[in-house]
Specification:
heterodimer; A: 464 residues; mainly alpha; B: 181 residues
């Protein structure tokens, strides 16, 4: 090609929109070192300043723009770009508002149905699911995870199905990938709560793969990593959990989200507590509670305050523990689910016991023990019985200790308690019969039960 | 769940989009995004913000960070597609079997003249690719690069070649060697 390519042809070349033979002609011409054409094609590439900036961007989401004073910038006019984009936002606002009001109705209807019927409803080919309905379904599934893990699992499965049926052309392929990733991570979390770790692993792997084709939204990514960290913590793979939480902190910092950072700190605090480092747990939980927004996630706040109170009490810092418990009490009632209130009474009993208010402590703990046995929560019931044993050992009440040991029989039949833990409780029971129970023995058995609970859960699930 | 159907929240989004405009314009200018492409970048970021409104706690920071990231991706993608277009065209030109000898000689002459302005390492790599028709694995083997990094090194050399063809003021490429990372 001897004559210069037309500028529109060069512009199309710059966007990679030329047919192959045209592309060949343009490049052949440019190989002749045509200065006239190079003056046109120069604009197709980033300038030296922009190239340098692209190389500098190791932290792409940092909001600051160093080295670019307002006066040095090119005078490009973006008015119409903003106006056209604004019109699209307005249009979507109206669509989403309509979708949302319909989504609440659909959700109300769905929650009244049995699972099989729910599945039929969401897979009905004549009904195209909406973004708003999917978003609401995923939030609802997450909320159920705290109260009824079985229900949460069912809703999470529905969530994955609905997310996968969203119309990528209507909502944007990358945005839909984000939402499907969120759905798989939610399912992974529901599986984790049910201690089905291998299934959870697979769900998180799918979520992470989908995120790679998503929008790159750091908040979306951080939420998936937080849930995955939770899985790693449950598996007692604390080092990996901490690395994931570091990434969440960094993403939270990048987008100025202190609530997200607070969640990561609180989760770190939980794991440090599980890893037998109560002082570090106290530090992280305190710091995390300062960062989170209680109105946004009251359940997280109450769980964090509960654990913090527990570690303070176990570390002998009773005044702080009591103060914190009193300030948290209204929130326990606000959350109001039975398990939270049960744990509150258990905590009150432990603190009363530590302060030497044995009668009050025994009353609290006896009430909670009965309910735990009724709910077949064998591990918790065993741990609580050992709290009661501490009271009797301190007061030298051997007869009550023997009776307590006898009352522990139903715990041995509980389905969630494994053989090694039963053996440890058997040792305790024999010692009680022989009036040989000491505070040291109670501490050892308690420590063993806490440690073996997670290990057993991991082993039994991974061998499936 | 986002509740943008409430008028006060809708208003807060409107206020945010207005208040963030000067900072967004600054980001776009800083990256010298052409106005016709700025619209896509802005729209995509703002619509995603709207879809995820209740999940994003610091919307202004999120929006500015996202637009900035999209600007970076815009240039990387654009640079990548230009390099690919140049590379494909040269491979096609060299592969035309029925081209007259004179045309072939002229093409080789022009290509060599442009490549002379590249670093020695890039020149050698592109000579193997265009002159001898080596594939990436063979190039890596010949030049002592790891197979895992040859794509990155080749892309850098193609970027240098594309700059030579398209941009004014790049008569001589810096002689720095592409690193084997």
């Amino acid at each position: 090609m001897n004559k210069h390519p037309h500028p529109t042809l060069l512009a199309r070349f710059g966007r990679g929109r030329l047919q192959r033979h045209r592309n060949r002609e343009v490049v052949r011409h440019l190989l002749t070192d045509c200065d006239d054409c190079r003056r046109v094609t120069s604009h197709l590439l980033p300038t030296a300043d922009v190239s340098a900036r692209l190389e500098e961007e190791s932290a792409p989401l940092s909001v600051d723009m160093p080295g670019a004073a307002q006066g040095d910038m090119p005078a490009i006019e973006y008015g119409s770009a903003f106006e056209r984009s604004w019109r699209e936002v307005k249009r979507l606002q109206i669509t989403l508002a309509a979708e949302r009001s319909e989504a609440f109705e659909l959700m109300r209807e769905l929650l009244t149905q049995p699972f099989e019927r729910q599945w039929e409803s969401v897979t009905d080919a004549s009904r195209q699911p909406t973004w708003a309905f999917c978003d609401l379904l995923l939030d609802t599934a997450r909320e159920w995870g705290f109260q009824e893990p079985g229900r949460a699992l069912e809703l999470s499965r529905l969530g994955v199905e609905v997310a996968q049926r969203l119309d990528g052309a209507a909502y944007g392929e990358s945005r839909v990938h984000d939402l499907v990733a969120r759905a798989w991570a939610g399912l992974g979390n529901a599986q984790r709560i049910r201690s089905d770790f291998p299934a959870a692993e697979k769900s998180f792997a799918r979520a992470e793969r989908l995120l790679k084709n998503g929008t790159g939204d750091p908040v979306e990514k951080a939420q998936v990593l937080l849930l995955k960290a939770s899985l790693r913590g449950n598996q007692q793979r604390f080092r990996e959990a901490f690395l994931l939480l570091d990434r969440v902190m960094s993403l939270g910092d990048q987008c100025d989200d202190s609530h997200l950072c607070g969640k990561a700190l609180i989760m770190r605090g939980f794991f440090l507590g599980l890893a037998n480092d109560p002082e570090a747990a106290i530090r992280h939980l305190t710091e995390g509670l300062e960062k989170v927004d209680p109105a946004a996630d009251p359940r997280l706040v109450i769980v964090a305050q509960h654990n913090l109170t527990l570690y303070l009490a176990e570390g002998g810092r009773y005044c702080e523990a009591v103060r914190l418990l009193e300030s948290a009490r209204p929130l326990y009632y606000q959350i109001g689910d039975q398990m939270s209130l049960l744990r509150l009474r258990w905590l009150e009993g432990k603190i009363a016991s530590a302060l030497g208010h044995f009668t009050e402590a025994e009353e609290f703990l006896r009430g909670v023990q009965k309910e735990l046995i009724e709910r077949e929560l064998g591990y918790d019931a065993a741990l609580l019985s050992l709290d009661l044993a501490t009271i009797y050992a301190r007061q030298g009440r051997s007869a009550e200790m023997r009776r307590l040991a006898e009352e522990m029989l139903p715990i041995f039949k509980s389905q969630d308690i494994h053989r090694e833990a039963i053996a440890a409780l058997f040792v305790f029971q024999k010692a009680a019969e022989m009036e040989r129970v000491t505070l040291g023995l109670i501490r050892d058995v308690t420590g063993y039960l806490k440690e073996s609970r997670a290990t057993w859960s991991l082993r039994s699930r991974e061998s499936r | 769940m986002a509740t943008l159907d409430h008028p006060e929240l809708r208003e807060s989004l409107n206020i945010l989009l207005k208040s963030s405009r000067p900072r967004l314009e600054r980001v776009l200018r800083n990256f010298e995004i052409p106005p016709e492409d700025a619209e896509d970048i802005l729209q995509d970021a703002q619509l995603t913000l709207l879809y995820k409104w209740d999940k994003i706690r610091s919307p202004e920071s999120w929006l500015i960070g996202t637009v900035k990231k999209k600007c970076i991706m815009y240039w990387r993608k654009r640079r990548g597609s230009l390099c690919e277009a140049v590379d494909t065209a040269i491979l096609d030109l060299l592969a035309v079997p029925q081209a007259p000898d004179q045309e072939k000689t002229e093409l080789t002459y022009d290509l060599n003249r442009v490549m002379l302005r590249l670093s020695t390492r890039c020149r050698s790599l592109l000579n193997l690719r265009y002159g001898l028709g080596y594939g990436p694995t063979e190039v890596a083997e010949q030049m002592g690069y790891r197979t895992s990094s040859i794509r990155k090194v080749t892309n850098r050399c193609l970027a240098a070649l594309t700059r030579q063809l398209l941009a004014v003021g790049f008569d001589q490429e810096p002689q720095g060697e592409p690193h084997d990372e």
